[in-house]
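Let us work through a complete example step by step.
Step 1: write down the sequence.
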Amino acid sequence: MGRMSVRWISCAAMLSMMAWGGVAHAKAVETGGYAISGFTLGDWSKIAGFPLGFQTSNIITPNPDKPLRIRSLVGLMYNFSRTVNVPQQNYGNANDLLQLTTKNTSVLFGIGPEFGPSKGDSQPFVYGTVGFDTYWTSSNLAGTVNGKPYYSSNGDSRIGFAWAAGLGIRKVVGHGEKLELSAEYRSGNGHRYLKPDQITTTPGNDSPTMSRDSRSTDQIVIRLGSTLGQ
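Step 2: predict the structure and record it as tokens.
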């Protein structure tokens, strides 16, 4: 774990303690539980499988007469295994064939402001958070190179800064209970993963050349669940 990761975790922990310190002075606190899914974007969409997970939230309202709230989220997301082929034009030998199989598990954390009405049966809102994502990525490259079997493991385990911006709506369904549907664009930084278009083979060489660079992990997270509290 690098120094920058430690700094972001420390900052996130401080923000969380400040938020919880405000609970004693809050006029309302809601706790939420959600199923989450969505779809991947950018470079991450070229290798990552379907995402599925769960998330919890705490929503603190300092003053119901004002639109500002503090929102914190913690979740676990799994990207199912996905196998993609290395592009044909990347092969240096006629019979080369490689496939990249990737799966990933992430812990998601974020905290930040939320804006929207606290009263009424329907309560639309927008929000932004900063925090971190952890990555436990399994990435295996297997196939045939220069007529010989080939296999390598190219996974990554790390933690990196993440930010999100989203919108949603909560609907009152009972005393102290609301249904929530929301979505966010989430971007994590510093994740090192292998893309199929950056894997190449050369004539007479038994091992491919590859580049596992630092890239962003972008996705849309869709959230459906309920909140309890006043």
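Step 3: interpret the result. Helices lie at 3-21.
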